[in-house]
Queue: 4 jobs
Job 1
Amino acid sequence: MPAGEITPPGTSASGLVWPEVFDPARTIVLATAGPKLVWSWTGARALPPGDLGDPVSGTTGYQLCFYDGAATLLMSADVAAGGQCGGSACWKALASGNVRYKDATGASGGIVGMTLMPSALRPGRIRVRGPAGSVGGAGGAC
């Protein structure tokens, strides 16, 4: 699995095995209320920043994949590392240590926002947003 891929099972660049922190019954919220799709993930343990790669410098992209209970791919979206979105950098490192992706056009499979919230002391979190009607499709390479 490529470093930074969000879909389980797999191993991050630093050896973090996703099933250790990925518990779908406990950690995923997928909401399509109103005009937006919101996906949130909270790890079961600390998630050091290095385990999420570096999308700001252009070395780590992400792939978000949604499956049904029978492991059939329902939709997917790829969010590339680096790049320009509307004349500004798509990815920004924030003072809080979080990393934020923003693209109002949703050019990356309909994804308009992603926030990576690593922490060496508390469970890491990831949040992804997009318009519900235009996020991905089942044609991705998950």
Job 2
Amino acid sequence: MKIRLPLLIITLIASIITVTAVVSAAEEKEKKIVLTEADKKIIATGKVNYNAYCFVCHGADGKGTANPATPGKTMGPALANSKRVLGDKDIIIRIVMHGVTGPIDGVDYAPQVMIGAKLLGYDDEKIAGILSYIRNNKDWKNEAGMISKEEVAKVRAADKDRATAWTLEELEKKFPEKK
């Protein structure tokens, strides 16, 4: 009986920890992004700008536009349910701000290279709007929250001397904890 009691206590504690973790994960999944009316206006403007500048490569459905020169490939990577779109804000802001080159998830989109919004002269508000639209496009099952023009400005200031597009390898080395 003496041996079984500690084992029973350990089993009970492990069960409580497991149930707590499962409940916490379920609660986290149930959290929904609540958008204000101001957020919805920013997203609507972001959609207009996305359709003017981004959809050509990434598609109206966010899954990438078919590349007529290379059957079976798209002109740009999917943004719908993308870990980079839904992940760390600093990384996706840097990708849009400066562009990205090289393989993305094992696919080389050359000769297309995403030209950075900084080079195109986009201001922080336009970049924030486009990213907020992409990150909150429910048709694409994206729900990741807003990006503010202040967050974009912070990244712009931090990378003010950068003149070239990022590679994903560079970003992963710079931000290993944010993969």
Job 3
Amino acid sequence: MAALTVFRRRRRAYFGKNAHRPTQNCDGEQAVEEGFKVVERPSTEPQSTRRAPRLPLVVDVEVTNLKSGIQIKERTRDLSLFGCGVIATSLHFSAGTEVTLKLAYGGTEIVAFGRVIYARPDIGMGVAFTFIGPDDQKLLEAWLAD
């Protein structure tokens, strides 16, 4: 603790009494003054890790566990080129489960393989596609373009 106090005293002696006081920059974001140099603090907002945006497209989906054969018939709450969110049900698969998905929309059907990324009873399951055929990929792109 004493070393921190010594550091603060030396910093104040070098930069003056207003060193490291928060100020507002022209964009209204927090910044820290270090002598004459202004350094912006990193944003605290979480960055999306998704490769493509998920659109709120509701389609019928049948999710089948590849090992046990258990099926869940439900609807998606959102859909993207790389995965989907399945509406919460009393039954869900745990994260890491390998599944097949049959998605039906507008009289057409897509079959894909996927892996459950997360599963929570309050928000449902997030499934990332691991394989989708080229024809099904084109159909998925058409669904998302509408």
Job 4
Amino acid sequence: MIDSLLEIPSKGIVLEGSNFSDLKKFRPGLKAIKEFDRVYSPFIDFKVSEEEISKKSKEFKLPSSNYESLSCLLTRIPYRKNINKKTLKKIDELETFLLGFGIKPVRVRFFSNAIEIETRKKFLGKLKGDKERITRFINSLNLPIEDIDFNKYKEGKFDEK
């Protein structure tokens, strides 16, 4: 995505939103960001943490202060697996469908023939109760799924330690 922004004819720069807290986590995208000479990460450069961003967002009453963290869709697929845009689009469509249940956060982890849907523990019962409806939607996306599982949300599930 960053490379497409840099194709815009100008002498501008791109500011991206990684923060200082991300340096404590496995974020392979940070390496890619460093490969671009006109892309900057001001929150990292000025050592601004995720907590500080959240606090200031609330203080300034920004609409984003109530947003759940949305990580890159690539985090839904285990590392070293083949990825294509079509699969990412389907994962995004399924997450959007599930958000329509009023459940946040929700993550769809995609394995070659199975999907794991993660959310907060208090919402798992609701999702399990709607498994038939969710299965119909997954089938409408033509995903080759043999199994659907529901689990408690875990940030960084596929992170390498």
